[in-house]
Amino acid sequence: MPADAVISVRGISKRFGGLLALAFIDFDVMPGDIFGIIGPNGAGKTTLFSCLVGAVEPTSGEIRFRGERIEGLPNHAVVKRGVVRTHQIVRPFREMTVMENVAVAAHFGAGRRRGADAARRVRDVLGRTGLAAEAHALAGTLTIGQLKRLEIARALATEPQVICLDEVMGGLNPAEIVGAMSLIRSIRDSGVTVLMIEHHVHAVVGLSNRILVLNFGQKIAEGPPQAVLKDPAVITAYLGDN
Amino acid sequence: MQQLVSVTLSALLAAGLYATMAYGLAVIYGVMRIINLAHAGFMMLGAYVTFTLFSRFSLDPFIGLVVVGPLFFFFGVVLYRAVGKSMARSGATPSIESLLLLFGVWLVLQNLAYVIWTGDTQSILTSYTMKSIEIFGVHVGVPSVFVFLASAASLIFLNVLLKRTYLGKAIRAVTQNRDAALLSGVDADRISATAFGLGTAFAGIAGGMLSTLMAFTPDFGRSFLLKAFCIIVLGGMESVTGVALGALVLAVLENVLGAYTPVPTSLQDAVSFALLFVALVAFPQGLPALFARFERKAIR
Fold first, then answer.
1. Do B166 and A95 touch (CB under 8 A)?
2. What are phi and psi of B113, to 5 degrees?
3. Alpha helices for chain B (secondary structure H)
4. Which of A47, A222, B190, B235 sits CB 3.0–4.6 Å from B243 for a disulfide?
5. CB distance B183–A85 less than 8 Å?
6. ipTM associated with this complex
7. A162-166 and A193-197 as β-strands: parallel, antiparallel, unpaired?
8. What b/e sequence results for A151-167 when a residue is b if at least 16 CB atoms lie within 10 Å of its CB, and e otherwise?
9. For chain A, which domains are there?
């Protein structure tokens, strides 16, 4: 495996009873990548993210973050090391303000900030994600577009080296998608490696420098976006045999 | 008029105590989604520990609470570390294992108390137990006033803890969304242990306060557990202000029924039973959710 990979996944599989949700997946993510993961519904994309951050323990295989094995570590410990994810279905702390939501992550994440230092980080993240005006609003009152940004803001506040974005564009309107794309680029430009699951093919192709395609838990293709989209196996998975 | 003042005052004094014992249950339910059936056992134990500190070391029961709080916090954390894994939250509803386990803990505590303190009825008699003071022309027992003040102090402490500290933010975070808390780097297991300790401490303090108001045996605490259930169901299980509101509603109802209707005081516990029933049927989400629904209707 490449020595400078941020994330190295080798032979990861996950079995839920009789269902093999992930079958022996290998891939490497390099620093500064925007690494897209696509595939039809039920392909195992979200399970893969769950394994990466420790929400789910893989049945077999190993995951290395900067050479150090992280599979099987508890979720919060992985976050403290610098790997975080967002959820497709947003999970805000509804009875807290936007600011408090982000402050929890700034304190308990990899940054472990407190006091004025934490407040500065919170302001910075809210500014970057366009939530500064909502800082004092209760998270439960936000629109879905704002909640998606809060999900990213909270992940960024943990000061990750790797951020896994699970369908952050789902349910957004075209203008919001343009905004989300530039936000993701700015996250990469700030030195954070990005993994993203996305159904919005235009967005993935436009952003990613590498794409991994999953189908029924198997890796069917990996490579630069244009090459992957021309791959016959990918075309079959998405469009069928005819 | 005199009676109205008297009823209002005793309702308010009772509400403080009720809120303290209900918060103990609420903080554990919020973080771990388990119903702490051992709550009554912790209250009973709190009463006996306060009693022992008073009779052996002649420590005033209200100063004793300063010992009981940290002691029970520690006890709760140790208990969680010992058996917490079997109570681990499995979903949105309390697991049957956790209910059985905590019921077992209650039984063990009860029998332990029989062994240590025997089944004799005990009570704490201080120099001020029989004294009363006059507030707005109504005579109120000094212990009730102290209980109210101690309740207010512990509730202010809890509120500051939850609102102003990172630990409190983490407790609220796990309560509101456990997954998201983990993803923010919060060690939810540690927070569960802390919450269990806090809940136990509040039960111990409530028990200690009760010991200054009434006599107790190792069976003590059952009717108060029921009241605490009623309050957290009314309060919407997770909301701090909701619990305070639930405590007030129950206290007012008990006192008003006692003063203005022929309902005998022996049926006071039936009030909380009836209220619990009505609450579960009419607004199972609790009062805060009910108010939110009305607000939304009003806006529309």
1. no
2. -65, -40
3. 2-32, 39-57, 61-83, 96-117, 142-164, 166-176, 178-183, 188-210, 222-234, 240-260, 268-282, 287-299
4. B235
5. yes
6. 0.89
7. parallel
8. bbbbbbbbbbbbbbbbb
9. 1-82+161-169+193-242 (3.40.50.300), 89-159 (no CATH)
How much is the pLDDT for B86? Answer: 73
Q: Which residues from chain A sit within 8 angstroms of residue B186, using beta carbons? A: 76, 104, 108
- Residues in chain A whose beta carbon is closer than 8 A to a beta carbon of chain B? 53, 55, 74-77, 79-80, 84-87, 91-96, 100, 103-105, 107-110, 114, 154-155, 157-158
The shortest CB-CB distance from A76 to any of B176, B177, B187 is to B187
Contacts of B166 in chain A (CB under 8 A): 104, 107-108, 114
Q: B172 and A75: CB-CB below 8 Å?
A: no
- Residue in chain A lying closest to B239 (CA): A95
User: For residue B163, how many other CB atoms are within 10 A of its CB?
Assistant: 12
Whole-number pLDDT of residue B34? 87
Q: How confident is the model at residue A238 (pLDDT cuts 50, 70, 90)?
A: confident
- The residue of chain B nearest to residue A113, with distances taken between CA atoms, is B166
Instruction: Annotate B229-248 with b (16+ C-beta within 10 A) or e (fewer).
Output: bbbbbbbbbbbbebbbbbbb
- Across the beta sheet with A83-85, what order do the strands follow? A83-85, A162-166, A193-197, A34-38, A210-215, A218-223
Query: Domain of B225?
Result: 2-299
Q: Which of B158, B160, B196 is nearest to B16 (CA)?
A: B158
Task: Scan for tokens 């629109």, then name that residue.
Answer: A143
CATH code, B120: 1.10.3470
Give residues 175 to 194 of B whose Cβ lies within 8 Å of A: 176-177, 179-189
B176–A114 CB contact, under 8 Å: no
Torsion angle in degrees (nearest 10) through CA of B279, B283, B287, B288? 150
Nearest chain A residue (CA) to B169: A104
**Could you tell me the sign of the dihedral formed by the alpha carbons of B127, B129, B135, B139, in that order?**
negative
Q: Give the pLDDT of residue B279.
A: 82
Q: What is the pLDDT of residue B300?
A: 46
Nearest to A216 by CA among A17, A47, A32: A47
Residues in chain A: 242
Determine whether the interchain pair A93/B188 forms a contact, defined as Cβ–Cβ distance below 8 Å.
no
Classify A124 in phi/psi space as left (phi over 0), alpha (psi -120 to 50) or beta: alpha
Of A77, A95, A157, the CB nearest to B176: A95
Residues in chain B: 300
State the pLDDT at residue B88: 64
Position with higher pLDDT, B293 vs A97: A97
Number of domains composing chain B: 1
Angle in degrees, 0-180, between the axes of helices B222-234 and B39-57, rounded to the nearest 10? 130
Q: What is the pLDDT of residues A174-226, one digit of tens each?
A: 888 999 999 999 999 999 999 999 988 888 999 999 999 999 999 999 999 99
Residue B7's pLDDT is 87
Bridge partners, B132 (sequence order): B141
